[in-house]
Every structure is written in structure tokens, then in C-alpha cells.
Amino acid sequence: MSNPFTGSGRSAPGTPNLPTPPSGWPIGSYGTYEEAQRAVDHLADSDFPVQEVTIVGVDLMLVERVTGRLTWGRVLGGGAASGAWFGLFVGLILGLFTPQGSWLGPVLVGLGAGIVFGLVSAAVGYASTRGRRDFSSASQLVAGRYDVLAQPRHAEQGRDLLAKLAMRPPSAQ
């Protein structure tokens, strides 16, 4: 998988990887990323030079899906749980450097301190919002459509292959 902030990944050695607009001619347009991915997979199966293909998300949207209501109990429970994991990790690391047979003390101290720290940091963070954001959510960047581009020298061949894919019955795809 490539990094979206380093451009196409096809820059010459020694040149900085800066974000660049995609190049190529459109050979297909799809409503979902899965459909665009299936189209490129079909091109690869047909021995098309897929290293010259780009999938471009067009009409980008930030979608925030609300996952639930936040309450003090939920906030403090989440803070205690995340603090416990961190404290357990620190305690285990400290336990590795203690004399043989006395590792339990550092683990319990780390666990306790982690829980307290998690509770306090979660409470301070939630209290600072003063009720302006009493819900949890997950954000995702999505596109309205996904265009498949190919370099001009292979665009006609790519369009022909994708047209054949579109003419197949859904069960054969």
C-alpha cells in the first residue's frame, strides 16, 4: 500500500516525494471503491500494465458517524480501561528489571497508577467540553465516485477491457 501524501510513488530517485495531481485518461468510473478495485483486478488478470493505472476518489466528503451517547460512566470506564492497559505495560517493563521473584509489585503499582491516570485524564477532557459534545463518533473520508485512470498509450485497451467486464452477467464477475 502506498502513502497518500507521497504522490504516485513513481518519482525519480533523489527527488522529493511531493503530492501531485493524478495523470492519465479516464477509462472507467465507479460508485464505490470496491467496484473500482474489482475493475483494476480485472485489468491485472488480463495482463494489462496496471502499474500505469490510478484510482482517484472524486467529490471527497468527511463523514462522521455517531456511535453513541457519552455519559460520565462511559467516559470514566473508557479512561480507566485505557489507563489500565498502559499501566500494565509499564508495570511489566519495570517488572523485567526487578530482582527475581518480585515482579508482581511493579506490575500492580503500574496497573493502579495507570487506572488513576486514565480516570483523571478522561474526566478532565470530558469536563472541559462542558456538554458541547456528548456523543462519540467515528470519522471517515469517502468519495462520491472513483475514477480509474490509465496512461494515454494504454487507455483505449483499458476501456475495451473494462467494457467487456461491464457486459458480463453479475454471476460471472
UniProtKB/TrEMBL annotation:
Domain General stress protein 17M-like: 27-108
Region (Disordered): 1-24
Transmembrane regions listed in the UniProt entry: 75-97, 103-127
Record key words, sorted: Membrane, Transmembrane, Transmembrane helix
Alphabetical list of Pfam families matching this protein: YflT
Protein name in the entry: General stress protein 17M-like domain-containing protein
Organism: Saccharopolyspora shandongensis
